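Notebook p. 47: complex prediction with nicotinamide-adenine-dinucleotide.
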Amino acid sequence: MANFHHVVSKARETFESGKTRSYEYRKKQLENFKRMVQENGDKIAQSLEQDLKKCKMESFFTEIGLLVTEIDYILENLKQWMAPDKPEKNLITMLDKVRIYNDPKGVVLVMGAWNYPINLTLMPVIGAISAGNCVIIKPSEVAPASANVIAELIPKYLDPEAYQVCLGGVSETTELLKEKFDHIMYTGSTVVGRIIYAAANKNLTPVTLELGGKSPCYVDDSVNLNYAVKRIMWGKCINAGQTCIAPDYMLCTKEVQDKFVKEARKVIEEWYGPNAVNSPDYCRIVSDRHFKRLEKMLQNAEIAYGGQIDPKERYFGPTILTNVNPNHPVMKEEIFGPIMPIVTVANAHEAIKFINARDRPLTSYVFTKDKQIQDLFLENTISGSAVVNDTLIQFGVHTLPFGGVGESGMGAYHGKYSFDTFTHKKSTIIKNYNSLGEKIASARYPPYSDRKLGV
Ligand code: NAD
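Predicted complex, structure tokens below:
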């Protein structure tokens, strides 16, 4: 049985030596990280093709490119983020130095997901390095080629005493979680998220959980439907629907539904041809387990478009289900595949009621030109993120926190939010030692009196 004690001990020893804390060290590691990604772009893309049949362009703009821009953004700001913050002072501390030190947390565990196995594993690692931590990296075994490429490259480019990769599945993860960490970041399902949370609880380890859920998408008739179809179905079809922030299901009136399906048929065939199985730009489902799960979702459903599958290849074509009953199995769990169920509602108010009666989603989308309806959604629904008139783009904005709420997760990362996630904010007072300061301070010493209390 795997034992990771020596791995974590080595990281702990390195952290305690203090070497990961300086600005120069962090900068060097981040520059090496960037070089690693740039020099091995093709190799990384090949691993993604092996795991998910992800095409090169998708690999670069949804996984690899974002790592490079994240590093650039962090390097531009790191010195300033690392400097102690100077909060406002009050009467009692007016003669003192009041600071918030941005300390690294120590040894952190980052557990990646398999759907964007490069980005969702390495993006948090960049944040953890920038905050001065040692990192144990556990890629998902469900995407083995990507996990192997991470394990091969990290020790070649980064300090092997501070950053180590552990490979394996459930039993290895279970062993790893017996170790004590100073922070755990996990990306994956809510079910496994609970297991991670329970393991962290034993050591009172803080966690960031990037989980999933059913992200709704409301569309009304004020929008240009062709644009809406493209933006929504792109969010659904990219990575064959295996995207945590994909629009999971649609809410709209019956009239919008009928027009949407007609337009979607045209758009999907424009993108992938009459049969997406032949398209070089269309991904495959990651495993037989997930394929079978998706197949079941088509039972007793009204398939308005698609429905073609090939279990041998794990090909699941873009599919739209209409007039879906909210109690149908497709509405009971996150789909995580290229199936778009449409539930019809009378209006925006009914859509909001529908959303609020369910778990808090990772994200929510609304397509409308009506500013009042936009505000209605933004002010009356709660989700990790929300986008009006587009999908997925929030992930690429380094200045926005990326994370869930409630069942879709806790904590957030990207840019400064990653730095803060892996940083301990140490409240600090450097007290003055002069006679005026001592006079003010002496008000607190006995004997007490009403005069000292100011009454
Ligand atoms: P998953 O990825 O969470 O489960 C598989 C992983 O969990 C494997 O790596 C496995 O080794 C591990 N695991 C399973 N049982 C375990 C146990 N008992 N102890 C320790 N580890 C265990 O689940 P999935 O359903 O394949 O992934 C899809 C989910 O991930 C979706 O819900 C999706 O929304 C979510 N996700 C969220 C984000 C985000 O950023 N919020 C990103 C990607 C995926």
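Notes: Residues 113-115, 120, 140-142, 169-170, 173-174, 187-189, 192, 195, 210-212, 244, 334, 336, 362, 404, 409 surround nicotinamide-adenine-dinucleotide (CB under 6 Å). Residues 56-82 form the longest helix (27 residues).
Next step: compare against the earlier run before touching the bench.
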